[in-house]
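> run fold 7-carboxy-7-deazaguanine synthase
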Amino acid sequence: MIDEQQALVEAGQMLPLMEAFYTIQGEGAHTGRAAYFIRVGGCDVGCHWCDVKESWNAELHPPTAIGEIANGAAEYSDTIVVTGGEPFMWNMTPLTSELRSKGMKIHVETSGAYPLSGDWDWICLSPKKTMPPKPEFYEAAHELKVIIYNQNDFKWAEEHAAKVSPNCRLFLQPEWSRRDTVMLDITEYIMKNPRWQVSLQTHKYLGIP
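> ok
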């Protein structure tokens, strides 16, 4: 039974579901819009400032059939955000096909560290230094969101901005624990480089998931 379940996970027919919830998108281009979040377990990118470290170990989260996941989403919203963890550790094609059959708009938030799979309306690429993105994400990304922890991250942001398509929207977001330290730097940087925009974790200010 375990081997059969593992085969379904590897095929993308089941996914280690950490949580799923209806809320307001708090970050990036779609800030302020209602969306249903599907948080998939499993991530080995290892960001030291990650605020969802409980998602890292996929074995802690029950393999869940994609039909069950999609049916739950359909009860709440027509906009779905798949996040993690790192979603592309798993084959996302079956899940997006299931969601697409229900007429959903499908977004994903990713580091881009694993190969791209699935059919997406919006890809938010948030590159991490420990495991840089796969090349295919630069052309596919609709949104580049770089987390700013210190001054070196501005250079990191520009390196990735040079690789994405001209239509990709560019965001700088303060790392939450450093927001009071780096926000003035971000503000000044964007005023000098206005192709960038500020992204804030507004859901944390609102006190919602």
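Residues 2-206 form a domain with the TIM Barrel fold (CATH 3.20.20.70).
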